[in-house]
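Our collaborator T.R. sent over the components below with a one-line note: 'Predict the complex.' Nothing else. No constraints on interfaces, no templates requested, no preferences about which chain binds where. So this is a plain run: every listed entity goes in together, and whatever single assembly comes back becomes the starting point for the next discussion.
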Amino acid sequence: MAPLLCIEKLRVTFRTRYGEVTALDSISMHVNEGETLGVVGESGCGKSITALATMGLIPSPPGRIADGSIQLAGEELIGANSARLRKLRGGDIAMIFQEPMTSLNPVFTVGDQIAEAITLHQNVSADRAFTDAVALLDRVGIPSPDRRARDYPHQLSGGMRQRVMIAMAVSCRPKVLIADEPTTALDVTVQAQIFDLLNEIQRDFGAAIILITHDMGAISEMADRVAVMYAGRVIEEGSADSILDQPQHPYARGLIDCIPTLGRAERTLKEIPGVVPPLHLLGAGCAFAERCAFNDRARCTTEKPRLIDHGHHPAACHGVEESRL
Amino acid sequence: MTRLLEVRDLTVQFALPRPGLFAPKPYLEAVRSVSFSLEKGRALGIVGESGSGKTTTAMAAIRLTAASGGQVLFEGSDLLKLSDEEMRRRRRDVALIFQDPYSSLNPRARVTDIVREPMDLMGIGTREERQARVVELFELVGLRPDQLNLFPHQFSGGQRQRISIARALTTNPRLLVCDEPVSALDVAIQAQILNLLDRLKAELGLSYLFISHDLGVVRHICEDVAVMYLGKIVEAAPCEALFDAPQHPYTQALLSAAPSLARRKSKGYVRPLKLTGDPPSPLNPPKGCAFAERCPKAQDLCRQTQPELSVRGATHVACHFPG
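Returned assembly:
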């Protein structure tokens, strides 16, 4: 079965005052029908840029898709005309953002905003669209939906606003739903509700979900497959079980080990020292070398490791390649 | 063990606008008769959802929000009874770290001035002594002396939080109030800051009042934990007891909601306890237990009578049907 959404060797660059900077360096990932792909990494690793590129929303200029291909069910999205992209956005591909308050329009009721999304993509009357909107609000678990549909965003709690965003996103039965840190601004209890809801929605609508997060705990609960990103590259890719049980790249291992867990109470957390390097300062070697505890070979600073399968799943690390880790 | 802070029946009310010209002024009770104590050298975590009163409790305990009632005994003396002048002198014993390291540092001041300013304001030491102290603090929190004259925007989020910590430590405080100090940081950086806070606590004998919604973080850094719901403490216990055997259904729900590496999608996990809905509005608190309408165990008694905190082993729990 061909993957539903397939990103191949995508390269995105931005013009900055430091010159042309590569934000995505030839990344490839795919997601199958009905599957959840988790994209994980720290801020500045290129997770959100990947999502924006898929939606055709890279601001240009300064951004530019320099190379590569993004195919949705066989259709090439890069270079597609803007009318076609508008049709696809909110139709076949929908997105949920991190901050539901800033992604909803404060001067329209939430029912009207969902109905607008429906009338833009489906040939239905305004009344019918509003009825559908109410049904969707009910589906995403908003109590007394016919009354809530007439509320403005500020009248709803953060969790309810994110439910409205999900209702809007699934209103046109998207094939791919991109959720960019959908619960970062929410309480854990609400986060749990939203995760459970996304899983239900996936069962009901059969949508593929791309979940962008920096939390390996969220990956464990939500993802079937995982792509770990670092400094604009995919550095490890595989099934969620394989990555969580046998992380290969020291960065992937670090992301798992640095989470304080409920069960054990060791006194010192394993930390990943330092920060993600600025993209304009990336050298010839592995971008993670500076923060890595296993950077003892010359190749680490002179040659970028390639994403190769070393037994468990593909990882981009010279150390793993030489199986000394 | 010596007691550093003891809070008794702390209550905070906020006045609301009058609904009519002659109508009585309504009040919102944000913190409802909260009591806890903090021993020297220990950390007490306060957890709960947004709006549960965690921050208001901590702010009222150090008199940054006016309390409407109760006592705050800090090393034996009631902070709420001190005059403004006396309180100003006690300020050096208490310091704060905020959630957002981007908005809590003056963008137009050099970090050396930011860290030195509390000493300038309180007239501590000579100019040279203060400067020496800044350099010493920079080293203590893991920053380099050559970074002293930079501006906040030249630092990453984690480094800015280190600057906030250095600033908090300038006056040698005994109590540090940490209000969600790592929530705005990436997980990898979060571990760096937690390890730093842990080390400082041991090295300097600090006590923390640690506000967080992340149970994993609290478990890691705190010895004791209090769970708040709608302005009240519903469960308080030493960490081990609370995490191993949570008594209140709300605590159980919080633990079941926290994302965990132990729950795998591939294994088809089902969340043991699901919370629906939102907490009730503090404007119109329910007559009985505030958690009753979301509670799987709720019965008529719960909707009628508010449960009081009672002792159950090492735990204090406010529930009619704990365990």
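Summary for T.R.: Residues 188-205 of chain A form the longest helix (18 residues).
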